[in-house]
């Protein structure tokens, strides 16, 4: 079941209030959703959308160009697709290796301004997930900072869906610790992207500044992703 946008926004506010934190940004995750569903949310004031698949995203961007939306790539990115991504996206949240940093920087057109990037961290060290290990964050940050076409904004994680609330919380806390250390060294770092439909309130309680919500906003995806 889709939850209306004002209800989701109010949930984000309440979770942030309860934690004594500023409300996070909402990224509407529109993967596998048709362009009309994106346009419907945009008409209600939502501006930032997250996509996982490059070809699908490029088609929607083209169709919705006149709306001036902000597009985030949140799915795994192969270096051979870096060119269209660097040209058309506003943010890439899934940067996890030096080769991708170089490729995105090479193809970012100067007239578009720096591409905003987040370093994806494999915080629960799952073999099935992409992302760098926490120990590699600083080296990757240095590589990004060396590229004038890229702007390091922070960190992203997809923690394991542990059944135990305590383990979920622990992953979010470890992400916040990494984020605060990075932000202390690099003042332009302002974004901690964590929390999805099932766990966004917990992520906000532990310091998420951006949550990525798909199912709760749009309802179940039309095809599995
Ligand atoms: C699909 C996806 C989401 C949204 O997940 P929901 O459970 O539908 O809210 C968030 N982040 C990433 C990286 C995703 O791939």
Automatic annotation (TrEMBL):
<dbReference type="Pfam" id="PF01168">
    <property type="entry name" value="Ala_racemase_N"/>
</dbReference>
<comment type="function">
    <text>Pyridoxal 5'-phosphate (PLP)-binding protein, which is involved in PLP homeostasis.</text>
</comment>
<dbReference type="GO" id="GO:0030170">
    <property type="term" value="F:pyridoxal phosphate binding"/>
</dbReference>
<comment type="similarity">
    <text>Belongs to the pyridoxal phosphate-binding protein YggS/PROSC family.</text>
</comment>
<dbReference type="InterPro" id="IPR011078">
    <property type="entry name" value="PyrdxlP_homeostasis"/>
</dbReference>
<protein>
    <recommendedName>
        <fullName>Pyridoxal phosphate homeostasis protein</fullName>
    </recommendedName>
</protein>
<dbReference type="InterPro" id="IPR001608">
    <property type="entry name" value="Ala_racemase_N"/>
</dbReference>
<dbReference type="InterPro" id="IPR029066">
    <property type="entry name" value="PLP-binding_barrel"/>
</dbReference>
<feature type="modified residue" description="N6-(pyridoxal phosphate)lysine">
    <location>
        <position position="31"/>
    </location>
</feature>
<keyword id="KW-0663">Pyridoxal phosphate</keyword>
<feature type="domain" description="Alanine racemase N-terminal">
    <location>
        <begin position="7"/>
        <end position="222"/>
    </location>
</feature>
């Amino acid at each position: 079941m889709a939850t209306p946008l004002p209800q989701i926004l109010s949930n984000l506010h309440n979770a942030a209030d309860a934690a004594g934190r500023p409300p996070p940004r909402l990224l509407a995750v529109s993967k596998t959703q048709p362009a009309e569903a994106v346009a419907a949310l945009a008409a209600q004031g939502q501006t930032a959308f997250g996509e996982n698949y490059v070809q699908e995203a490029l088609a929607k961007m083209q169709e919705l160009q006149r709306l001036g939306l902000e597009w985030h790539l949140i799915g795994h990115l192969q270096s051979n697709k870096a060119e269209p991504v660097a040209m058309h996206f506003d943010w890439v949240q899934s940067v996890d290796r030096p080769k991708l940093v170089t490729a995105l920087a090479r193809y970012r057109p100067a007239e578009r301004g720096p591409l905003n990037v987040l370093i994806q961290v494999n915080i629960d060290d799952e073999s099935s997930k992409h992302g760098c290990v926490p120990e590699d964050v600083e080296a990757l940050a240095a590589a990004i900072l060396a590229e004038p076409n890229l702007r390091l904004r922070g960190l992203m994680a997809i923690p394991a869906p542990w059944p135990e609330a305590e383990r979920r919380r622990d992953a979010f806390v470890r992400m916040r610790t990494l984020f605060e250390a990075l932000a202390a060294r690099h003042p332009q770092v302002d974004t901690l992207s964590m929390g999805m439909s099932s766990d966004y309130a917990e992520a906000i309680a532990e310091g998420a500044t951006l949550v990525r919500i798909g199912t709760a906003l749009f309802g179940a995806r039309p095809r599995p992703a």
